[in-house]
Amino acid sequence: MIKVENLHKHFGGFHAVDGASIEIETGSITGLIGPNGAGKSTLFNVIAGVLPPTSGRVLMDGEDITGLKPHELFHKGLLRTFQIAHEFSSMTVRENLMMVPAGQSGEGLWSAWFRRGRIAEEERALARKADEVLEFLTISHVADEKAGNLSGGQKKLLELGRTMMVDAKIVFLDEVGAGVNRTLLNTIGEAIVRLNKERGYTFCVIEHDMDFIGRLCDPVIVMAEGKVLAQGKADEIMQNEAVIEAYLGTGLKNKMTAGANA
């Protein structure tokens, strides 16, 4: 579905992404891991149109989408969530979801004056869909809660719910486990797997929790210093010498070696 070809993103003399090439297959849950500063989030931002590339190409289903803006990619079914959740804190959880679909009749002044019946009908349909999404994510009990009062994990579920309001094709999830307790992280993981299997969503996931990555993701791509270091199944990646040194650190590498020789 997504093919990234020799992508570069430079900030002055700093090469945040330095010739990265990856492929994300349709129907996969692909993991993207690497140490802090490896270029993972920058790569996400370039793919999702938040940042323009310095050079290189991004293809989606064979179409060159390099440099398209986030709202243009949104209409193509490509969505990106952020490490820090973005919500309308003073609106309810249900209202946050109802805001997502574009092209609503109530957005136009003329319709607001002369098509109130149509607007009311649309809002009822959106509310029903929002409630279905909340039930799917097992957070129906917070539907009428102000979104700003949610826990970190609930906000991550709300972000995932936004993607369900527009039937996304591919979703880029940036550190879904950041600030999330283990119970809610398991709930998020289960929702991702269900969306993948039941609704055909494709995911690419940045996450530092290797247990989470190992349970969900195949394949796993490793980045270091802006480059792709390795790709494979999670258990293969964990045995890769270069990955152990770059991602896990030489201290752990020596400890693992010592343990194996004991």
Topology:
Blueprint: E1 2-11, E2 14-24, E3 29-33, H1 40-47, E4 55-60, E5 63-64, H2 70-75, E6 78-80, H3 93-98, H4 109-114, H5 116-136, H6 152-164, E7 170-174, H7 182-199, E8 202-206, H8 210-216, E9 220-224, E10 227-232, H9 234-238, H10 241-248, H11 250-261
Parallel strand pairs: 3-8, 3-9, 6-7, 7-8
Antiparallel strand pairs: 1-2, 1-4, 4-5, 9-10
Helix pairs in contact: 6-7, 10-11
Pfam families: ABC_tran, BCA_ABC_TP_C
Protein name: Amino acid/amide ABC transporter ATP-binding protein 1 (HAAT family)
InterPro entries: AAA+_ATPase, ABC_AA/LPS_Transport, ABC_transporter-like_ATP-bd, ABC_transporter-like_CS, BCA_ABC_TP_C, P-loop_NTPase
Structural commentary:
It comes from Rhodovulum kholense. It holds the Pfam family ABC_tran. Keywords: ATP-binding, Nucleotide-binding, Transport. The protein has about 260 residues and is of the alpha/beta class. Helices cover about 40% and strands about 20% of the residues. The chain has helices at about 40-45, 70-75, 95-100, 110-115, 115-135, 150-165, 180-200, 210-215, 235-240, 240-250, 250-260; strands at about 1-10, 15-25, 30-35, 55-60, 65, 80, 170-175, 200-205, 220-225, 225-230. The strands form two sheets. A six-stranded mixed sheet has the order 6-7-8-3-9-10, with helices on both faces. It has a four-stranded antiparallel sheet with strand order 2-1-4-5, with helices on one face. Strand 7, helix 7 (about 180-200) and strand 8 form a beta-alpha-beta unit. The model is unreliable at about 105-115 and about 250-260 (pLDDT under 50).
